[in-house]
Amino acid sequence: MLHRILRPALKQAQLLSAIKNKQPLWRHETLVSASSACDATIRSLEDCLEVNYGGAPMWFDYVWLRDHCRSDASYNSSTNQRNLDTASIDLSIRPDNTTVQDGHLVLTWPGGHVSKYSLSWLAENSYEKNKQSTIQPRILWNSDTYKKANIPSAKWKSFMSCDDEVKNFLQNYLLYGIAFVDDVPATVEATEAVTQRVSLIRETTYGRMWCFTSDFSRGDSAYSQLGLDRHTDTSYFQEPCGIQVFHCLKHEGTGGRTLLVDGFYAAEKVRQQSPENFELLAKVPIRHEYIEKSENHRNHMTGIGPVLNVYPWNDEMYLIRYNNYDRSVINIVPHDLVRRWYVAHRELTNELRRPENELWVKLTPGKVIFIDNWRVMHGRDSFTGLRQLCGCYLTRDDVLSSARVFGLQA
Ligand SMILES: C[N+](C)(C)CCCC[C@H](N)C(=O)O
Ligand SMILES: O=C(O)CCC(=O)C(=O)O
Ligand SMILES: [Fe+2]
């Protein structure tokens, strides 16, 4: 057996950037032992196990392996819950014996506990397999590319009776951030029934299922005939509503078309043109606020976060919080940064306002739209006459859960 010195290839501060840039975090200097099987080769290195399977090496940390033991004592395979107390694992643990048998890696730990992992499960869950993948695959669009994609709307009858129709609908929704169901009876009840095929409804201060018209029943400008610039809703919640559903039950008048803009498409343009502006929008905290003091409603909501929210490990965008109406006082940002933030915000706004990025649709009775409120902005033309919209917000986790149940990546 050879001795090996493990040296960190990187300083602690460089770890995160290495994760982002997919660099190896450690250097493996010498081989400790090797064994082989028909379908896999394994090498026990000082700090991790190297598994060569399916043509490429994968590296598994020993504590990770013990923690992910799939035996009944360590893990409940019907609920996917861990039985093992991770804090009981010796952080310098190493297996006494490692072999490959019948497509499984078999490890015997000090004390005699045996862990078995199928090689395909290991490959599926290796860092090497997953490091390039995005959490949520998407197709970013502008008006032209969305129209050219010719995405069919789901149809009420099959949507209510056929799971495949819901699955296709959800796949489109995940990829584009918008999806339609047509031929829905123009009632609140039918709209509710449609949403319940995919999710739970998120009750908010606006109610569960809401129905609104330009009657100023609430202070918000949505309850008027005014045009509304593109925005995301409930930016003043710490967790903005995941999905917005609209169904126009009636409109006797002119105007009132719905505007849709893919916020991620615009933000990616900013990222390409001026990474420093993208970074400001992703870091500077902005508060949004909603205050209502009427006889029937007393609310004071706030949510703080950057306009662009990205996962820190891969810079993938997952939430855009953009609502110029509901943006609150900026008072926790120094003045020089404020100026730079306004420049960045202007660039994003210019991208969001490019006519070629605007998808206009006239919502008519029967057409229900689902909008990813973490990604796609909505707005509307001013209008005349009686216009009645109903809809609701959905809980994001439940929509995504439905999608996963259908086998979709969400
Ligand atoms: C959809 N519904 C009419 C119920 C509420 C409208 C909320 C509008 C608010 N300015 C926001 O952007 O969150
Ligand atoms: O009236 C509309 O079409 C949409 C208004 C709006 O932005 C909202 O209700 O969130
Ligand atoms: Fe809105």
From TrEMBL:
Pathway: Amine and polyamine biosynthesis; carnitine biosynthesis. Transmembrane segments: none annotated. The keyword Membrane does not apply. GO terms for biological process: carnitine biosynthetic process. CDD domains: CAS_like. It catalyses: N(6),N(6),N(6)-trimethyl-L-lysine + 2-oxoglutarate + O2 = (3S)-3-hydroxy-N(6),N(6),N(6)-trimethyl-L-lysine + succinate + CO2. The keyword Cytoplasm does not apply. GO terms for cellular component: mitochondrion. InterPro entries: AlphaKG_dependent_hydroxylases, GBBH-like_N, GBBH-like_N_sf, TauD-like_sf, TauD/TfdA-like, Trimethyllysine_dOase. PANTHER family: GAMMA-BUTYROBETAINE HYDROXYLASE-RELATED, TRIMETHYLLYSINE DIOXYGENASE, MITOCHONDRIAL. Belongs to the gamma-BBH/TMLD family. This is Trimethyllysine dioxygenase, mitochondrial.
